[in-house]
Structures are given as C-alpha cells and as structure tokens.
Design a protein that fits this description.
Strands 2, 4, 5, 6, 9, 10 and 11 form a 7-stranded mixed sheet that branches. This protein has a 4-stranded antiparallel sheet with strand order 1-3-8-7, with no helix packed on it. The chain is mostly beta strands. It contains 1 helix and 11 strands, in the order βββββββββαββ. About 35% of the residues are buried. The model has no long low-confidence stretch (mean pLDDT about 95).
Length: about 130
C-alpha cells in the first residue's frame, strides 16, 4: 500500500505561480512512477504530467508543457508539480497518483487505469 497526500493548492491570479507537493508513505517510493492529474468542474479527470521511477524521464500534457514542471525526491518520498503562468483553465482539483512499472511513452503515462494509488486531491483555483 502507498498513501499519497497532496498539498499546496490555493487561490491565485492568472499569471501567478504555484507549487504542489505530494508526500508518499508506505512501500518503497522509488519503485513507483508518479503522475499528476486534474479534474475541473463538470469535466473528466485528465492527465497533467508524469515522471519515471528514477526521475530521468518526464511527460506532459500539451496544455501545460513549458509551464509546469514535475520533479521527485526519492530520498524525501515526494513528487512536486511546479506551475507557472497559471491560467483560469488550470482551475481544477489536482491529484497525484502512483503506479508500478516503467513509463515509456506519453500514451502509457496518460493511462489512468494503470495507476494503483491516488491521493485525495488539492484544489487549485486561478482567477482571471
């Protein structure tokens, strides 16, 4: 079992930056690839970013590429999502998720069904 707890959400203005963090406890954190997903009101949950177990490779949704950065610290059991130049359309509940197995493509990174553990989410609201 892996327990995931997100933090760092809040209310910001368009153009601002915000960093989210996900703390993991339980089994060996470095054995899991990690992802961030988000769900806006009335919409389906969507992929945001993912990072491999070693942190060597990262994957991003087109909508956040160049603005968001995912990183992990296997010594601290955390995965972060740095968000810059936020837009109102980034408003959503953000979830971190953990999956076993490697990620070799953006297609694989997006597959929500492959993620075994999910956090409860943190709200990010971007005002215009």
């Amino acid at each position: 079992q892996v327990q995931l707890v997100e933090s760092g959400g809040g209310l910001v203005q368009a153009g601002d930056s915000l960093s989210l963090s996900c703390a993991a406890s339980g089994r060996t954190f470095s054995g899991y690839a990690m992802g961030w997903f988000r769900q806006a009101p009335g919409k389906e949950r969507e992929f945001v970013a993912a990072i491999t177990m070693s942190g060597y490779s990262t994957y991003y949704a087109d909508s956040v590429k160049g603005r968001f950065t995912i990183s992990r610290d296997n010594a601290k059991n955390t995965v972060d999502l740095q968000m810059k130049r936020l837009k109102p359309e980034d408003t959503a509940v953000y979830y971190c998720a953990a999956r076993t197995g490697s990620i070799y493509s953006i297609t694989e990174a997006r597959r929500q069904i492959r993620y075994d553990y999910w956090g409860q989410g943190t709200q990010v609201t971007v005002s215009s």
